[in-house]
Amino acid sequence: MSNDKNTEAEAKTAGCGDCSRRSLIAATAVVGGVAGISAAVPFAMSFAPSERAKAAGAPVEADISSLKPGDMTTVEWQGKPVWIVRRTPAMLASLKADAELLADPESKRAEQPDYIKGEARTMAGKDEYFVCIGICTHLGCSPTPKFVVGATEGMGDKWQGGFLCPCHGSQFDLAGRVLKSMPAPDNLKIPPYKYLSDTRILIGDDSKGA
Q1: Residue 156 confidence (pLDDT)
Q2: % of the chain surpassing 90 pLDDT
Q3: Of 47, 72, 147, 197, which is most buried with the most CB atoms under 10 A?
Q4: What is the mean pLDDT of residues 164-173?
Q5: Out of 168, 196, 199, 200, which one is annotated catalytic?
Q6: CB of 210 closer than 8 Å to CB of 113
Q7: What are the residues facing 76 on neighbouring strands?
Q8: What angle do CA 75, 80, 85 make, to 5 degrees?
């Protein structure tokens, strides 16, 4: 009788061992499956471009309906600041007055679309609005607007208004043209753009006969 009980106990113990092994295998499979899914998600996500990445090269629309004369607004395009300045008649007049102070008054060296003409560096009939990339052509700093004429903002008596690069002192007029003897070699760049209406500008796209 004793031998029969021992045999039965051993059988139960062996059966429980099988159960434990089966449970361990199942648990391992579940954990492995979860880990596999977790690893697969970021891997798959790496193929999907972020919204910021998609927007980096896309045209950007700017609403200028609330921009008052003498004011400036900034939009981001391709990770760069793009300035839109609504110039007053006095600001436009200053572009003639400071020509002798400029390194490249006719913007012959500047990067700008073919349809950007004249000392105002705008589209024909749109002299009031100046659009440019707000990055100094020296080492890539972003200049600061200094629109007040004269020495009020520490710019000297002959200052006609414009932009000052805080990094190395390059000065630009209200058409983004660099003054002579400055660290910046060229005028500020102008991006491709077009008007969607009188109050909406599309930066980064000049198709359809800009």
Answers
A1: 84
A2: 61
A3: 147
A4: 95
A5: 168
A6: yes
A7: 81
A8: 45
* HEC readout, the chain: CHHHHHHHHHHHHHHHHHHHHHHHHHHHHHHHHHHHHHHHHHHHHCCCCCHHHHHHCCCEEEECCCCCCCCEEEEEECCEEEEEEECCHHHHHHHHHCHHHECCCCCCCCCCCCCCECCCCECCCCCCEEEEECCCCCCCCCCEEECCCCHHHCCCCCCCCEEECCCCCCEEECCCCEECCCCCCCCCCCCCEEEEECCEEEECCCCCCC
Rounded Cα distance between 62 and 67, Å, is: 11
pLDDT range class, residue 55, cuts 50, 70, 90: low
Q: Within its chain, how far is the Cα of 69 from the centroid?
A: 25
The dihedral sign for the CA sequence 178, 137, 181, 117: negative
Annotated active-site residue 168? The verdict is: yes
Phi, psi angle pair for 83, to nearest 5°:
-90, 145
Average pLDDT (201-210) is: 82
- Stretch 144-153: mean pLDDT, rounded? 90
Task: State the amino acid at position 27 in one-letter form.
Answer: A
The rounded mean pLDDT for the chain is 81
Question: What is the greatest pairwise CA distance in the chain?
Answer: 121
CA terminus-to-terminus distance, the chain: 104
